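re: the backbone from monday

yeah here it is again, tokenized this time
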């Protein structure tokens, strides 16, 4: 790690700077018989920087790059490896204490994400909000662009069977898609592709993380099966209610 001893800092916003080092698991910095040393001070600085990084990522609505984190800390001599190691240590602490979240690197930087095994319960809470944010038409258009980019408006409309002017304009305004070039056909139509904000919005690291078409088909079949089961259960309940009513009427007679 670099030498931080000559780096100045603002004591009102940052701790006094010395080279931060990861604390040893065997150190007892609070021991009554322990005399504080320079290494103890460095270990405490390391822990404080980890807390600052955790707070920054937690408070941000967007993924934070290492550069942004370093600038917010005001410590330009912190290396990328320093910050990445601190984030790794935070994730180890979350795992050891059974937390349901981790700090993950996605398209534009680091952000807190819930572990995948909890998605199903969170989806029940978030689905109405997601639907309000993006309409079904917008989601369908976005999916077409994501899987077939670069693609022209005419091709999108041919697939969806409807005009796409408004949806494309809305997706451009939200910076989820961008003009990625021009086609070779007549008039050289504009071609559209997804942006880094698209990856950030859907918590994807790259386009290779998109579900494969076969996986989507399997999910759709599972969803159809669930809907069918729900419909059968509803019909069964109606029939049972009818039988209960008949029995109750017979008892009255």
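seq for it, each position gets an aa:
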């Amino acid at each position: 790690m670099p030498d931080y001893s000559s780096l100045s800092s603002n004591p009102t916003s940052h701790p006094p700077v010395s080279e931060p080092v990861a604390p040893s698991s065997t150190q007892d910095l609070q021991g009554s018989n322990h005399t504080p040393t320079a290494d103890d001070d460095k270990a405490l600085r390391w822990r404080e920087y980890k807390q600052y990084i955790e707070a920054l990522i937690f408070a941000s609505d967007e993924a934070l790059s290492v550069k942004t984190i370093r600038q917010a800390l005001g410590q330009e001599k912190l290396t990328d490896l320093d910050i990445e190691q601190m984030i790794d240590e935070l994730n180890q602490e979350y795992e050891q204490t059974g937390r349901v979240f981790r700090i993950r690197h996605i398209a534009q930087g680091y952000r807190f994400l819930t572990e995948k095994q909890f998605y199903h319960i969170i989806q029940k809470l978030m689905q109405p909000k997601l639907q309000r944010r993006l309409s079904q038409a917008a989601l369908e258009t976005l999916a077409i662009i994501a899987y077939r980019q670069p693609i022209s408006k005419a091709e999108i409309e041919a697939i969806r069977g409807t005009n796409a002017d408004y949806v494309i304009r809305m997706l451009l305004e939200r910076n989820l898609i961008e003009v990625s070039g021009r086609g070779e056909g007549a008039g050289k139509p504009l071609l559209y592709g997804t942006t880094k904000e698209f990856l950030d919005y859907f918590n994807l690291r790259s386009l290779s993380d998109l579900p494969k078409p076969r996986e989507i088909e399997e999910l759709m079949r599972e969803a159809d099966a669930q809907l069918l089961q729900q419909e059968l259960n509803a019909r069964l309940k109606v029939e049972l209610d009818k039988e209960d009513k008949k029995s109750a009427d017979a008892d009255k007679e």
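The beta strands are 101-105, 110-114, 151-152, 177-182, 190-194. The two ends are 90 Å apart (CA to CA).
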